[in-house]
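A reminder from the course coordinator: this example appears on the midterm review sheet, so study it carefully.

Given structure:
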């Protein structure tokens, strides 16, 4: 049986020194709202007073620029040659979406992918931050390994939905995180029912009941985010739900998760 990924690729060589707490947002499959959760969680952290960056590491489908209303922006280098992040909604943002025309196919292989992740960590002037939220692509591909080898991760969050298929794939993602020795900080159940606009009661969207805990993933359940039909319109308009509807039940769930991360994370060395 082949060795661990670190043994095959040189371990943690080239990692950035300790600084902000880098939290990867992962999912076992697409369609569970991972990027939406990552964007809104970063906005929630910033709203709580944390200095927060957002690294769009979903290199195959970078949607962060559109969701934050900066899809027409481009990355620029400063006088020192380092990349300057874009700013929006209190965040410092880096995405490959700032480097290619919208709609172009993004085809990455190992060496090019690893170099891009390396550049986004080492060659970006992130400044002093408390957190960097890294939106990973769905599944168990090269990006989590490259990010893990480039910077010490504080941990990862796993996004799933109340559906057997999503949970089965999330379990595979949890296994990948364990294999890479990336701490799984907790599980977030997205689209955890909808709220009836008439009576305010919970309406299930999936056949499976919501998670009561996340013991099957070996991690705590950090929160259950109810479905809000306005969230798609917010993403399309570049105005995150956390910013536009900060008093909504979904925003309150995200705020609770952000507060928990701040409360249980050690102070940043940045």
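Designed residues:
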């Amino acid at each position: 049986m082949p060795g661990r990924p670190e043994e095959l690729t040189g371990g943690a060589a080239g990692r950035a020194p300790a600084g902000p707490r880098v939290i990867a947002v992962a999912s076992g499959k697409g369609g569970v709202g991972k990027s939406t959760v990552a964007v809104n969680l970063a906005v929630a952290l910033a709203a709580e007073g944390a200095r927060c960056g957002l690294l769009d590491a979903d290199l195959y489908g970078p949607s962060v620029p559109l969701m934050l209303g900066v899809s027409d922006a481009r990355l620029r280098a400063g006088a020192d040659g380092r990349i300057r992040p874009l700013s929006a909604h209190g965040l410092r943002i880096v995405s490959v979406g700032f480097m290619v025309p919208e709609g172009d196919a993004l085809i990455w292989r190992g060496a090019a992918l690893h170099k891009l992740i390396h550049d986004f960590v080492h060659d970006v002037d992130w400044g002093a931050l408390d957190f960097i939220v890294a939106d990973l692509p769905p599944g168990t591909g090269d990006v989590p390994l490259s990010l893990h080898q480039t910077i010490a991760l504080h941990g990862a969050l796993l996004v799933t939905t109340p559906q057997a298929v999503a949970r089965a794939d999330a379990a595979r993602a949890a296994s990948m995180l364990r294999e890479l020795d990336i701490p799984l900080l907790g599980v977030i159940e997205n689209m955890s029912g909808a709220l009836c606009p008439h009576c305010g009661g919970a309406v299930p969207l999936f056949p499976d009941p919501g998670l009561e805990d996340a013991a099957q993933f070996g991690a705590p359940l950090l929160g259950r985010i109810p479905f809000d039909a306005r969230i798609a319109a917010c993403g399309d308009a570049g105005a995150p739900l956390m910013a536009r509807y900060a008093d909504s039940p979904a925003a309150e769930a995200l705020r609770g998760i952000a507060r928990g991360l701040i409360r249980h994370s050690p102070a940043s060395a940045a």
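Residues 1-13 have pLDDT under 50 and may be disordered. Residues 186 and 220 are 5 Å apart (CA to CA).
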